[in-house]
Write a structure and sequence with these properties.
- By secondary structure, this protein is of the alpha+beta class.
- Helices cover 16% and strands 21% of the residues.
- Among the domains are: 68 residues, Roll (Nuclear Transport Factor 2, Chain: A); 35 residues, no CATH class; 59 residues, no CATH class.
- The strands form three sheets. A four-stranded antiparallel β-sheet has the order 1-2-3-4, with helices on one face.
- A hairpin with a 7-residue loop joins strand 2 and strand 3.
- It is elongated, with a radius of gyration of 45 Å.
- It starts with a helix and ends in a 56-residue tail after the last strand.
Length: 256
Amino acid sequence: MADAIEEARAAAEDNAPGLVGEHLGVVADEERLGTHFFATLDPAYRGWRWAVTLARLPRSKVVSVDEVVLLPGDDALLAPPWVPWSERLRPGDLGVGDLLPTKADDPRLVPSYMDVDDDDARGVVFELGLGRRRVLSYDGRVDAVERWYDGDRGPEAAIARAAPAACATCGFFVPLAGALHQAFGACANEYAPDDGKVVSVDHGCGAHSEAVVVPAPPSPAPPLVDEFKIDLVGGPLGHEPGSVADADIPEPFGHS
């Protein structure tokens, strides 16, 4: 079996003429069953090798070809492991017209009647099928809270650390309803970077409603009218005929 190198090479050449390289070794798989390995010369399969499995019947000196395959070696270039599309999806990947179906047993969701505290109300909702079919489960809320709080709109964001105050004290902060109202709300300031987005109560930015209170501008002063000045039209006194210099100016009282 180990000496049947040429028989194994001929079998590999039948599958890939001109692409079989040097002999790399032989491995005994079982009794009267062994595999010869040859390097491949195909540039598209760097690090792969031809595996030719030979078999021998009991008391026979003739080997036969059992299988010829191309197998990856230790340094072979391989495709990454296949991952379902639903697990490869990342935030922001969903586009216009795309659909993302949720699993029937999605741990983030529970039937709506399971989220009702009162047992009687829970039974009524279940019987009549009122409201949404499924709502956030406890695990779903925890996942959302951790994701939002650790994200760019939580307290550790750079813009939040430099903010003059937290969102909880901002007039543009609109608290969420339901179980998350104590920790999150929406920003309603059109000039803020997080306008229309969910922010934590201890988030913040420079557009805080009480960051700087700008005083109203003072009213302009009334115009000053000076009625005691005389504007002279023309040249200096006494230089132009008909000017004030040529007019009859009465002498001061008491002089001739």
